[in-house]
Amino acid sequence: MRYALALEYDGAPFCGFQTQPARCSIQDALENALAAIAGERVRVQPAGRTDAGVHATSQIVHFDADAERPLTAWVRGVNSRLPAAIAVLWCAPVPAEFHARFSARARHYTYRLLNRGERPGIEHGRVGWYPLPLAVGAMRDAAARLEGTRDFSSFRAAECQARTPVRTLTRATIVEDGACLCFEFSANGFLQHMVRNMVGALVAVGSGKRTPEWIDALVAAADRTQGAATFDAAGLYFTGADYAAAFALPPTRRAVAPSRA
After folding, report:
1. Which of 10, 51, 151, 242 is catalytic?
2. Predicted TM-score of the model (pTM)
3. 222 φ, ψ to 5°?
4. What is the dihedral of CA 70, 76, 81, 83, to 10 degrees?
5. Structural domains in the chain, sorted by start
6. Interhelix angle for 136-144 vs 194-206, to 10°?
7. How many CB atoms lie within 10 A of CB 223?
8. pLDDT digit string (tens) for 113-157?
9. What whole-number distance in Å separates Cα of residue 19 and Cα of residue 160?
10. Which of 185, 183, 180, 199 is nearest to 258 (CA)?
11. Beta bridge partners of 173
């Protein structure tokens, strides 16, 4: 049987989603927990491979298992074997052609940026931070210039292994949430560090170091060395992926909780 399941996790204690030799990843913890319930080796495939320190409110994965277990075992039983910072939200049977990564029609990220003079305390590790005032209107103008089908090489990590830097960004918006700015991004796919690098560029505009028009030039340059600094992973959340209705999945997107700052 093939199953899909949704996870939420705090990425701070882990070295990213993808398995590592040190066995310090979210994938390592999840596969160990699934194997304990299945009584056999289990491998998972995620919708998105989040980096170290990045969180998720709705990471979608799939796995195959010969063992027959009730769905509650794949949720409550697996949760009993997982570290406290990872939780399975739901599990559902899917057809063999379902693939968490390749069947996804869109992916969604939120970046939460605390914009106040004082560093975060209660939300340490859960938000990025910028201590100086930001011009949100200029940032929204700049964000709109990122939308569309673009070569995002200027926002791509040097070690990114994607075959092409072209992506279609369907949403780049900024919502004010108390002292936080929430950057919302949706696309057919994302490059490594793409969201954090876009946030860095938008903050450069909001701080007055750059104009909104600079974003156009930056995209056209297709050169990461001309971009802004990569922002802290702590503020980034994978918030879900979209799939065809035919798969009949439970909700696959979950918003980030409102700010407490």
Report:
1. 51
2. 0.96
3. 50, 45
4. 140
5. 2-103 (3.30.70.580), 106-238 (3.30.70.660)
6. 140
7. 11
8. 999 999 999 999 999 999 999 999 999 999 999 999 999 999 999
9. 17
10. 180
11. 184
